[in-house]
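Handoff note, outgoing to incoming analyst
You'll be picking up this chain. Sequence as last confirmed:
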Amino acid sequence: MTAKSIRARVRDELTSEIKAIARQQLATDGANLSLRAVARELGMVSSAVYRYFPSRDDLLTALIIDCYDELGEAAETAEAAVDRSDLLGRWLATGHGIRDWALANPAEYALIYGSPVPGYRAPETTVGPAARTTNVILALLADGVAAGTLTVADPVPGGGTVLPLPPELGAELDRIAATVCPDVPREVLSRGITAWIQLFGTVTFELFGRLQNMIESSRRNFFDRQLRVMAVHVGLR
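Most recent structure output, in case you need it:
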């Protein structure tokens, strides 16, 4: 092994150790990260840590990307284990994969879906990792449209006429569809976005204690039921 490769390996290992300490800080202090505190925990001088992460925001960005990638992988892995023709099963697996990761990593979930960090603005490098979970539902919608399962018509039996989209919203949905899912009609995309928001809203309510003194011992069943209600709204079956 060359000296250059040894230095690269040492740098990678120390970078991982810095991020691991920072994630411990997330659990105790939230997103109020301190490079000085990380350095103390590692037994290093602050200037050494700054060579790896020049600022708190650089460290935050690295953590955010890691968290989005981990959550995306959890959703993708759960969804991929289900037969491609089982749209409802794929949706349920995705939802439970997201919830399971969030419950196992509450501080990390709060970092990416909690309150914005004051003074921090996420760079473009976070967009791709953040989109991984979104891409799972977009693939579901596209497959449902291709199979003839998802249509513009109201998916709820006896639901009556489809609620028309305001022109401004329709134009915005057309723009989104043209970028990421051109074969998905705007009405289907709108229902999918609504379900996606409700999914994360349900996870957030549970994780941030909003279900206390209401749903206690059967939260997984409650979450599964909410997923199924969302699926009916979208037309997944």
